[in-house]
Batch of 3 targets.
Target 1
Amino acid sequence: MDMKLKGQIALVTGASKGIGFAIAEQLLKEGATVLITGRGEGALNDATSRLAALGPVHALAGDLSTAAGADAVLAGAKAHGEIDILVNNVGFFEVRDFFATDDAAWTHMFELNVMSGVRLARGLMLPMLARGSGRVVFIASEQSLKPHPQMAHYAMTKVANVSVARALAELTRGTAVTVNSVLVAPTWTEGVEQFLQPVAAQQGVSVETMRAEYFKGDGASSLIQRFAEPEEIAAVVAFLASPLASAVNGAAVRADGGIVRSLF
Amino acid sequence: MRHFKLDDDSVVVVIGSGAGGGTMARELTQRGIKVVCLEAGPLLSHIDDFVNDEVTMFNKLSWLDKRSASGNWNMAGSAMPSWTVKAVGGTSIHWAGTCLRMREHELKARSSYGEVAGAALADWPITLRELAPFYSRAESKMGVTGTHGIPLLPGNNNFKVFEAGALKLGYRSVSTGTMAINSQPRDGRAPCLQLGFCFSGCKMGAKWSTLYAELPQASATGRFELRPRCQAVAIEHDDGERVSAVVYADAEGRLQRQKARAVVLAANAIETARLLLHSSSARFPQGLANRSGLVGRHYMRHVFGFTYAWFDKPVHFHRGTTCAGNIEEENGHDPSRGFVAGYHLQTIAQHPVGMARAIAAARGHGAPVAARMARYDHIAGQMIVGEDMPVADNRITLHASEKDRFGVPIPNVHYDDHPNNVAMRRHAHARQAALYQAVGATDMIQVGPPPATHNMGTARMSDNRERGVVNRWGRAHDLRNLFVADGSSFVTSSAANPTLTIVALAIRQAEHIAHAMARHEL
């Protein structure tokens, strides 16, 4: 299916690896020009060279947890022309006991996971509204709807993404601009694997065992009974970013493997 | 005022009293030539009849005769695809006053831009070198700011927002521009008091209009007769190569026939083409002066577009000069932008009715309009004026069945937006958005072109009689005493607002006609 993304310019944040990388890959395959951001120049350049064969990709280094970093990315992005698609993907997660999570951890989580998207939307959405077309996608999580006490700060930022997306969608009334969020399933990425390795070692089990055990415990309600692959998330995001999704606006789209046990 | 008899064939009949016709009337009469000017609209007094009310003035001034429109543009289906004036002074009453010269590369459009698919680009038969002295005379006559030592206009708030954003984007050329609006007393007319309402007619006469700047000068020669409410319906020719008379409907709707030594057609590009097409005869079955088949073709209207932005603080963009603000940097030929030719960014204010329509078009009716109109005083506005590609099938034709009250078929305006225009408008809209964003816009809308006031190209100029309707002097190839003195003769549109070029060409043409008459060639 032609997703009609040829020639569009997309900005995907946090795309050195994981879901962001997969989204960039998918958009490139569909013929878009993709600008990717990342904090570490090494990983970013590595990702750029891996993606270069698929189409026009450009790296924009910057720490989006700071206003200065966001300004640098915005300036870099505007040099490439009008941005048609903004995918606010960047974010990190950690498992941390609530009572051991200090203010700085909460604030940092908020700065990166929430303010990054706020800052970029503030810079890029007005021209979209002015010309009446554009796409903004926020990457949220199943944690937006079923917060885990070991990730209270992360879950808080993820529901904030959904809220901001809906609020921004209200600004698009009467235009062809859309703003949506995607509630992402537990997804098997390098980041998750790296996070689990020390935990598995501590518990004296293999990462593979932990991967399977997850669906007997916290992930029991999952209907697919497995971690999603980044490409599966990227396919949903690419659709939402495409002209085909013109009737989807202000939605929190679930790509959660059915883990949230509710009708709506 | 002098009165000429209908059978006096020593007069030059000028059809239209706007920038082209009004200028022509003054220039010819001051050279000793007798002129009868037929104007379809009424004679109004700017002092007594102009009011600062856009809707009243729209109804009082506009050419509201029905037209039809087809093509892929937003005016298709509209009965008013073009906004021109039906009153003595023509569209020089409504115009903004912006006076930009065409540039060298624009006058050589075909050589500069190369072959562009679907566009009939051509070089003008005249060069900037030939035109420059007439531009200078036009600027002097019109009192254009920034020329002949005339100071620039002060900037209104709309300009100040525009200027601040422009400087942030690195546009160093930003200024209130070269405007035919008095910044100081000149030519017996007052300086601009920044009332606003430029499009409704300048009540104080600070903005140049033929109504009070040219036509009284023509009258003062004793060789001029103005016939308001007299609408030309056909031009007649003799058995040779000459036009002989103009048939017109007078104020009572009776048809009259004024004999003529020569005819100057300056009815604005749609009506000029319509008159020629309707004046067909056995010898000119395709329309008068239309052996080339080009009458009505290559209709151009400029690449227009608008960006309106809302700000935290009031702007009151409707106060002061409606359009005094211009950026030059984008008016070059830089194909790396994804299109040929260039555009100007200019300030503009929109009256409340027009603004509400623009918001509704961009955001939908009802609440979106109400919320934004409540903050009408917080809006700043910009317009795009870009070079339009001449397309052979963008043309004026006579409607197959509908006729006006004098039995003349109404004109159909067909226009398809050329892909180059679409790419240019998109680029310009992005620059406008960036400009307003750089100075803190909180909301923005961008809308496409309104009914065009810049109408050009329908009687194209060329030295080759097969490639143009008129020659380098604006004289019809097919008829030796028929001239075109409005934007119809434009080969390409350039990105310059057309009035200054119309006036410069009319001065040049009047000189040519006077010399030809002195040599008894006319």
Target 2
Amino acid sequence: VDYGVGNLAGCVAAFTRIGVKSIVTNEKSDILNSRAIILPGVGSFDAAAENLVSFGVRDVLLEFAESGKPVLGICLGMQLMLDRSEEGKLAGLGFVQGETVKLSSAESAKVPHMGLERVTPSEEFEKTLPTISDKFYFMHSYFCKVYDEGVSVAYSNHGENRFVSAFKKNNVVGVQFHPEKSGDVGDRFLKGFVGLV
Amino acid sequence: LSQFRVIPELLFDSSGLVKGRSFGGHEYVGDPLNTIKILCDFGASEIIIANRAVGGSALDFNRIASWVSISNVPVAYSGTVQSMADADELLHSGFEKIVMSRGFFTNPQLLKNISHVYGAQSTGVNFVYRVERDGEVVLIDWETGYPLRQSLLEAVEIAAEIGIGEIYLTNVDREGLMEGLDYSAFEVVKGVTEVPVVIGGGVGDMTDLKAASKTVGLSGVTVGSYFTFIRRDEGVLIRYENI
């Protein structure tokens, strides 16, 4: 979904690599007719939240999520699935209850958190999506604090601090890392996600 | 601990990829598209491509976007960006980050705007420096070689105010020599900045990379010649090694 921010070209290239047809759109009919949608990431929360409204896609996304078809949020796309962010004032999509909070900086864990990091899934989620258990590329300053721990399906570390690197609530999946920029590991993850579709 | 980042840095001008010493004497070393593909295949986890065209001529977006499209890892663009429209174009064409050097001093407001719209992680600054005989770290303009007015600490303070997500420190006198990294500038900024710091200029072997990876507070290194040439003064052989 094109909402003006986010690395759409990177996502399209990734789906092309794994042989899956994808389109970049913010047209209501295109979105609702898709078998799955991706909310890409890279950007700041308010700039993106504002665009969701101005591009006219916010209500369409709410409708799509209700349909039960898979939605994958990547990085900022994951954060937008929450209610709100410490980074801004505008409302998120509210698919998952929670808010984004700024990572704390330490000598061994700088912010933004950049680079490869291990993702450790829950036993149950590993059965659903085994390709998530690996090292993925992260680039973020905020993390998702979810109110219902039951939706957290994978964790990663930023220095001493553990944070939720993936959540899943019914058909809605959010990942803090960038599978489209995590080399072969990321491609395997996306293939696994497509397999759920 | 977060994984230490070993980042290949590719320099380009109008001819293709180039490599030289101390930001000069550039020779053609290959085709960007193939090189990026090779680095991805060898397991690089991110790449920087740096525009070394002096004078900041207009960017050929189609040309550089075609290079990035081959990459399955993040690619940062290092070079002066003239406007928000150029930044939009770069970040929409597949780049994850814009790293400025000269542009940080001439147009800090632009970097601030990019950080505001795309987030701090989409921005970086490359401070090019020289170490004087008395050990003082002096920032220089890489195009002219002249020293800048600001001290490194002053510049780091401005970077924090602007909301820059990453600081690169490049010793111009080590660049391309493969004789080891210099930590002088890192020593000045460590403990002062909250953002990741990456140093570059001089990596010559795995020993340099291992020593850097054990340096507390250092997030990564950029590597140019060592991943480009078989040995110093020898032929081109693109490769990537992690620690």
Target 3
Amino acid sequence: MKIKRINDEFAEVEAGRLKHTVNIQMLPSVKTGDYVLVHAGFAIQIVDPTGAKETLKLIDEIH
Amino acid sequence: MKYIDEFRNKNLLYKVLNKIKKITPKEGISLMEVCGTHTQSFLRFGLNKLLPSNIKLISGPGCPVCVSPQGYIDAGIELSQNKENVILTFGDMLRVPGSKSTLEKERARQANISIVYSPLDSINIAKRNPHKKIIFLAVGFETTAPTIALSILAAKKDNLKNVFFFSALKLIPAAMNYLVKDKKLNLDGFLCPGHVSTIIGTKPYEFIPKKYKIGCCIAGFEPLDILEGIYFLIRQMVEKKPALANQYVRAVKHNGNLKAKGIISKVFKVSDADWRGLGKIPQSGLKIKDGYSQFDAQNLFSIKRANEQTSKRATQCKCGDVLKGLISPLECPLFLKICHPDNPLGPCMVSSEGACNAYYKYH
């Protein structure tokens, strides 16, 4: 889900029309615009765009 | 990039599939997908019908509700009988059969049981209900553990006296260590859980290829992630170079989430734990540390959990064998005959992460 607004320990996140407020205490470096994995009301990890692109590139190249 | 469509790209999927077909040897290959969400994705996207038939994907114990022993459900039900108590739970626990009843049936009989989305909800509910004891059924793996720990820390910060957590939290690598030694399973590789790994990182799996010479690949949950993970595992097998691979680099770092790991070790200590179907596994669970024992439902209510033998006598359900990967849901004599999502006889049919539920929906 994408971080839209940060408010102290919480952030508003959205995925399509789904909107939620999640706790971001586990991710000290999270910022607006980041995509995060959400579990039980908490953002647990930032999705790394470079890592995603690398995976897709690798799949395309080695196969 | 929105991280979904890109990992469902048909052209890339067929590219990986063709490569898998090209390198797969003729003999039978048994791979275990440890995580229940992998089981769901694998069947939902029909990957079982696309892969060579000699590649067998075995569902593992990665459904937290499924591996909670029946005695835990019974203890939760026992707590719900006290009018002073309010039981909070994730939704999929509600219909899991205990030895005599379910939380859902007890709720219909006026027990105070509510479904919450997050363990943090227990804090607000405790503040709104100062005369009630709020008890959260803390079920989950390493992904859920920091969310429970942060809720306990919030309860301590707010000096709450009426909120308690009943921990049945479990650790995945300890269960994998148990399963890898099972000669009946004879596994050729593990597809390691993506979300658990975002927290614990890659290191806790390293002992498997080193000690047992079996490959491991941490994978994401989109079809391309799963196929790529399977490709890595088969390649390791063919080349006889078992190793730990990380396909899910966009979410899993080598060290995992350091903040989350710190929070877990601040609040919990590692202990032995009972797993449904697998029995007691040493050092495979998390208990609340003494410094936070005022929030531990186990200490305050002195609950005695039923042992595995009691659970086995109480039901003909084969969830235990399904969780160990010894049988597929299709081999259970109850599957679809009397056990289905409207009348689940075991947790594997209840939870959306359960193997039987996934087979019912998609197979």
